[in-house]
Amino acid sequence: MSRHRTLRTRVKRGVAGWPVAVIGLVALLVLGVFGWSWLGGVLERRAAAEAGDCAEGEALLRIASTPSAADAVRDVAKAWSAKRPVVYDHCIRVEVQSIDSEVVLDSLTQGWDEGKLGAKPHAWITDSMLWANRLGAQDHSLLGAAPQSIAQSPVLLALPEQGATAVQASAGFRWTDLPGLTSAPGGWDRFGKGEWGQFKVAMPDPTSNAATAMAIQSALAGASPEGKGPVTTEMLDLDPVKNTMASLVGAKPVETPGSTWEAMHLLADSTAVNGSGFSSVPVFEVDLYRHNTGKDSGTPPLKPLYGVAPGGPTPVADFPFVALAGDWVGEAQVRAAQAFREFLTGTEQQKILAAAGLRVPSSTERPKPSPGVRWATMTEGLAPADSNTTQQISAAWATADNGQVVRVLVDSSKSMEESGGDGKSRMEWLKAALSGQVNRSLSGSVGLWEFSRQIDGDLPYRELVPTGPVVEQRQALLDGIAGLQPLSATQLYTSLVALYKDAQADYQDGKRNRIVVFTDGPNDGGLDFDGLRAQLDQLKDDARPIPISVIALGSAPERDPLTRITQSTGGSFSVAEDGKAIDSALAQVLSAS
Asked: What pTM was estimated for this model as a whole?
């Protein structure tokens, strides 16, 4: 009965079926048109991308890479290019150039030579965050985004085979043992080879050799509360840490070469332990692999070096991808750099990096053959120091290594009263940075001058503390720094000539003689720029170089004349946009060779 009622109800409504069908057909046609248009657009965009005919044309993404990773990064770039990437309506082409990190840093901050290096890069892949920290210390505005690691490589000690065999057959040693081990007259006694004499470790300049810098951190880490880092700026003020640093510097072989690569080649050519003047050198695992397989020189050595991993927390290079910022970096490059960095971390791309001797989280594959490299499992990594402390460690090493003769010229103009951040003036931040450096200095000489207008009678400058050994006048320097007060206008150029003459008259042969200037405004009165250049040109003596380094305070310094001054004397130009950046900028200047 119910079924018949349903039928009667349907018939009773009397609605024809064909209008519904027509409406449905029209709807399907409309949806089909929209769907076809959407699909056509997708296909057109895809075809355009595949044809390289993007709406905004082609954009080039230039990447400067450390030689340790350049070949692998090029292979990844080829894989990405094969996918026809389109970013910000541009077809992206990636160009990877192998350039030493030291060259990239100096060129970005002091002037890029396109004739030698080509156009500026939009991104930089370096071997260690230390380089990114140094870039930030000199000019933070060049960092486009927070650096991100794409791979890793632990620090090892590279030794000839017989030395490595002796070390590995013993009870071993830790990174924190290095100061005592290297300073002992018979360091090889510990490994049953007393006839070999001193265990000498080459420590090429940590400013330009990141493996050295990280090994130093590991040696100092024993003074941290848990013995595994991180090293802090406060620790560097402690006498035990200063003594450790002094021991490391004092044990440095006289024959220490300028670079890690040179040290490896000398060790490989040596026929006896210490035959090259040293027993070993800190090196990144990937660089030892490249050395032993001839990927760095094209020819493998006759005898490979062997990597030994000291015990304790291991220092690890993190190979950061550093996006750069500047007027040469467009929006397309910004987005392309981000996209390529993400592509680098993909599983297949990580395998390419692993095959090149780098360590990655997603793969345990190792290149074969790999003579001298054991690829030992890392059980614990060293907690790295922060960006400021890394600069302070290099500066402490530089001042301990035969010392420096530094004359500091401080701007005492009224503008130094302006805020430097966190409720403190620029002058307050500067005084804190200078005091910290004086307290941490192990040796060398420092003098303190200030400049303003009519600060000493009619003179716009005056000497507060004569240049002399830090250990003999530490308190006088601290008192002079504490007495700095903003006074009048900026008269830099006249003051700089007077200080340069003083530095020449008291030049100390065999040491780094340098001038460091802090200023926050343009020259205001007295000698003009042309007059300054003319006088400096007359005063300069190539046999007695005195580089002038300028640290400009504030976000809008007078870059052009200040940069020209530093370049003409072999110094450096840095920008500290706020007070917190002054300490790192000063340490970066003092650590530069």
From this structure: 0.86
